[in-house]
Request: fold
Amino acid sequence: MKGLTDLPASAPVSTTDLAFRGVKWDVVADMVDLGDGERRREYVAHPGAVLVVAVDDEERMLLINQYRHPVRMRLWELPAGLLDSPGEDPAAAAARRARRGDRPGRAAL
Reply:
């Protein structure tokens, strides 16, 4: 669709509270003035992540088979993961994730 563009915007925030502290990410709650009154908006404060699409010379794509507890299944997926520390270089994190593709339970399709 030509002509659609996301635009930066902000709204005044009167309070910010930690709604939930998790092991890998937190849930934050802001009271935001949207022009017609304040509303509570909750969101995940995420450290950032990378996703790797690795394709070899034979046009095979690297996938990993990983247990995902919420669905109680082992799923085939692209290598991905959280940044391990604040300010970590995403390219270094992506390379680390791709190297993990050499372990058992990995496949190139």
